[in-house]
Known about the structure:
Blueprint: H1 3-14, H2 20-35, H3 44-57, H4 63-72, H5 76-86, H6 98-110, E1 118-124, H7 130-142, E2 150-157, H8 160-168, E3 170-172, H9 181-187, E4 188-190, E5 198-201, H10 203-206, E6 209-213, E7 226-230, H11 240-252, E8 254-261, E9 275-279, E10 282-285
Parallel strand pairs: 1-2, 1-7, 2-6, 7-8
Antiparallel strand pairs: 3-5, 4-5, 8-10, 9-10
Helix pairs in contact: 2-4, 3-5, 6-7
Amino acid sequence: xxxxxxxxxxxxxxxxxxxxxxxxxxxxxxxxQRCGIRLHEGKQELIRARLGKxxxxxxxxxxxxxxxxxxxxxxxxxxxxxxxxxxxxxxxxLREEDHFKFLVNQALPSLGLGSQKRFKVWSAACAxxxxxxxxxxxxxxxxxxxxxxxxxxLATDISTKALNKAMQGVYPDDKMDSLPKDWLRKYFKKGVxxxxxxCKVKPVVAExxxxxxxxxxxxxxxxxxxxxIFCRNVMIYFDRPTQEKLVRxxxxxxxxxxxxxxxxxxxxxxxxxxxKCLRPSIYQKTEx
Length: 288
Ligand SMILES: C[S@@+](CC[C@H](N)C(=O)[O-])C[C@H]1O[C@@H](n2cnc3c(N)ncnc32)[C@H](O)[C@@H]1O
């Protein structure tokens, strides 16, 4: 065997992830580096359960064997599968509904955008799409088709699996419970035959939304400014330095006096960021 291969062989054996504690540590570090999410000690069962499918898919018999494969031979697609498996995509239509009311009743009228008739919103960490579609329903109500307003929504998430669902815009009937009945008729098409029991978001809203994969911790190649950014129920998984860095980045993409909405359980208190708190979970940009 050539010397180089011998060296590689030696290194691979030396670095082999041998036991479960080492495997958990590897996964915890991997997810932290890739998504900023801190999976704490108590998440070991979750890691084991969520990666079980990947482990079986590759014919491995243990988590350490799978992690060893991830470390030495896996490609980017496999890493994406790991991120997909370990991110929590829980969401629902009109979640924390006061934010949508704030959007149309206060944010929009206060920004004086009337002369341009353009309004852009970013749903950062949109999961399976219920958040951007909820924004879309509210904006459709606010801007009737004849109003001539050009409004659009950028919807991003790190999870490709969640984004694929979001792009399809197809949801089981029992996910619609929080929506007003007349919105179901206006904004959804009922599935028939094989799709009975499901509804699909109509183009009148779906066409206004651009879905894109984006890691909030990566370089954000976005050439746009937004009147309002929804970044809800994701920062809760990040540590304070990561939150501060992210919020500073997001603020750069807000128009002057634009708004950042975070989850009800999240707070930017104590972070050094150019935003003022209007009320819990609602922030306004202070720098021009
Ligand atoms: C709990 S869901 C929140 C969904 C929605 N914003 C809401 O409030 O209902 C959190 C989402 O954040 C995404 N996420 C986690 N880390 C991320 C990162 N570094 N960049 C972008 N999205 C991320 C996850 O994939 C998941 O879909």
